[in-house]
Amino acid sequence: MFFVDTHAHLYAEEFSEDIDEVIRKATQRGVTKLLLPDIDSSSRNSMLALHLRYPETCLPMIGLHPTSVKQDYQAELQEIEKIITAQKFYGIGETGIDLYWDKTFLREQIEAFTFQAELSLRYNLPLVIHSRKSLHEIFPILKKYCNRGLRGVFHCFPGNISEARQVIDMGFYLGIGGVVTYKNSSMAAVVKHFGLDNLVLETDAPYLPPVPYRGKRNESSYIPEIASFIALLINIPAEEVALVTSANAARLFNI
After folding, report:
1. Residue partners of 168: CB distance under 8 A and separation at least 6
2. What mean pLDDT is predicted for residues 126-143?
3. Cβ neighbours of residue 122 closer than 8 Å, sequence gap 6 or more
4. For residue range 201-237, what is the model confidence (pLDDT) as tens digits?
5. Do 4 and 249 touch, CB atoms closer than 8 A?
6. What does each C-alpha distance from 37 to 7, 98, 228, 243 come to in angstroms?
7. C-alpha span between 231 and 17 (Å, rounded)
8. Residue 60 belongs to what H/E stretch?
9. Which of 23, 118, 195, 241 has the most other CB atoms within 10 Å of its CB?
């Protein structure tokens, strides 16, 4: 089976001691494409260095994470615009709005998100959206782009069936990771209702590992566990989950 991990922070400090082993384990289990979401200028060099070590496996995006939107956000955005053509990037993100940690820079988060949506259109790259506690702020922004061909994925989709329908109707995919295996997660109901056609798989490594790895570091090699859970949830073979979600990811990220 061939899998794509559409969202993994493998350049994070948590992997500094054993990243080669982490990637080896993932590829041995069929997870052969690992998409690296950008955070900000402080971590970008580490991300790009990992891509250079594994150019066919670790595929970089470029963007400004909403929790990195501070007083200097305009300089961060200018840096993105400056280097976006310097090499191949596979997506814009992760971007979006985060109202879980801090609402101080909400206006700036909205500006940064809108700027990156425009970049997504200009460079024909998918938009990778972080939407923690912010779906109702994000939807009105995206609806302005519905007729302009904007596409992308809601990373770690946090919503219910009704909100998932809005995402799908806007032409976006739902990013489904380890949270789907958690007992009280709304993701399971969403997956059961919509099936595979609008899903891509992700880990968000090193965060949010699936059962039975909760409390441990998440890794891309756990994607098959997520796929197996989904297969049982909707009563289909795990091979079909791999086939459909990988095809969705390949189509979205042009890989």
Report:
1. 174, 194, 198
2. 97
3. none
4. 999 999 999 999 999 999 999 999 999 999 999 999 9
5. yes
6. 6, 16, 24, 23
7. 33
8. strand 58-60
9. 241
Which residues have CB under 8 Å from 93's CB, separation 6+?
37, 38, 61, 63, 116, 126, 127, 128, 129, 130, 152, 155
- How would you classify the pairing of strands 127-130 and 152-154? parallel
The pLDDT tens digits of the residues spanning 44-64 come to 999 999 999 999 999 999 999
Total Cβ atoms within 10 A of residue 29? 17
Tokens of 2: 């061939």
Residue 117 is given by DSSP the state H
- Is the C-alpha dihedral spanning 218, 222, 227, 228 positive or negative? negative
DSSP structural state of residue 180:
G
Question: What is the identity of the amino acid at 180?
Answer: V
Phi, psi of 122 (to 5 degrees): -65, -40
Q: What's the one-letter identity of residue 89?
A: F
Q: Where do we find the tokens 């990637």?
A: 23
Reference 4, options 241, 167, 213, 180; nearest CA is 241
Q: Enter the tokens of residue 119.
A: 């970049």
Tell me how far apart the alpha carbons of residues 19 and 16 are, in angstroms, rounded to a whole number.
Answer: 6
Beta carbons within 8 Å of 26's beta carbon, 6+ residues apart: 5, 32, 34, 219, 220, 221, 223
* Residue 215 DSSP class: T
